[in-house]
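ARCHIVE CARD
Drawer: 12
Card no.: 0347
Subject: one protein chain, sequence and derived structure
Cross-reference: see card 0346
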Amino acid sequence: MNSSFNRGARGFLLSRAPIFFLNTLLVAGYFFFMAVPTASAQGPRNPRLDSLLNEKDSGVLQRQMERLEQSHKETDLNLLVLFYDRKNDGKKAEEILAKVIRQFPRGEYAFNKAANAIVAEKSPEKKEALLRMLKAHFPKKSVDMYYYDVAYGYAEQKGAPIKIEKVLSYARRITDPAFRDMVFPMIAGQVLDNGDPAGAAMLVKGSMDSLRPKINEVVIPQAPGAPPRRNPRAAYYNYVALYARILLKENKAAEAFSYAKEAYDSSNKKSPGINAVYLSTLMATGNLKEAFPLIDKGYRKGDATPEMKQKLKEAYVQAHGSDAGYDAYFAAIQTELMDSAKARIVQFKADNQPAPAFTLKDMEGKSVSLDSLKGKIVILDFWATWCGPCKRSFPAMQLAVDKYKNDPDVVFLFIDTWEHNADPLPEVKGYITDKKFTFRVLMDLKDAETKSNKVVTSFKVSGIPTKFIINKEGAIVYRLTGFSGGDDAAVREISAMIETARGSML
């Protein structure tokens, strides 16, 4: 699939994962699964869990469950947690989980709980304190993930100059080379976006220089299920492209171009990040003739940035010698994009089953029921504040909301769910307000008794972001999960689904 709204590359879909079940780092739109026992994470099948889930004899199952619950083995109790998690019995899962942590204070789940407290904490100073406690309590565990989390926490801190010495200190403690190559650019990119190109260069330049002698090393193919191997060549050119970005930020366009071109010429021309940096340097140096094919490609994929849109006509003129034929060219692109969107949305067609009824409160405490919206096309977007891919899709969703804001037949509802805090409303409201999104947000809070989020469960959602398009009769006509791709393409896809649901494209 090559859609803007789909799972796409690894990292653009977050599976159902209460914070204590899944040790997951959720920052800047990326996530990494740790090697912990969880039904939600992807990985090898668990034969014991499968056996329990597939047992048809209720008496046999009950006896097996009783034996597991009376067991003094951590693996047996962990299995029970997974079983109840898969059965959506959050109350029982939490009960067994508490027992596991009590009986095995240095076990896997105890480590995961302590580690997830670091990820959930907002203050980098408090993250540091929690990390010190984690290291003291679990001295043999790898904490590279949490060195990264603390470093990134300081890198994204707003309202004061970045504590770059803290960023560097924790980033440089990461020991695994492959993981370091993965996360250093993320940390450096955040430092750069937070207004400190010199600090970002300190992270990037040293890594780039150390990798340069190794770019011709042979990389042994990775065995299935094995930890990722370091690829010095790929890592080096990622650093080179990032360094070009830093130089652009410092208004050194000519120097940036030389680095970007090195990365572009040495790549397979398929890296979106490297291509984007190269295009930016072409535009910054005024080389629009060479930039035109890349701008054209970005437009046709629906990935065009505001700068690309601004430069399209000028680049066309440089490439063709005049503006003759430009209007027809531009109109053809628009038609191509909409035809492409219509073709792609077929993969998201649902079975027209009635959408589960629900009533939820919005951020102002007003109740909204799905039944009250019969006769309208309803777009539901399940999301959470910790979900990077969800938030990555929001600029596109805002464009879609703006497009239909005066259409009385179309309603967008953004359902916040699976939050880790007991009272997520302040954080949800703060995020939406800070980003100036004009979304109608409904709160799918965890039920105190069942420990589950009822609405997301009723829609059988297993990963977020997940979006549903519901027609005027209340039937689900499209369902799509994940986000990757450009905002323009995403808006066209949503628009095509809405218009199909309306009947104007049938």
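Annotation on reverse: The two ends are 23 Å apart (CA to CA). The longest helix spans residues 326-344.
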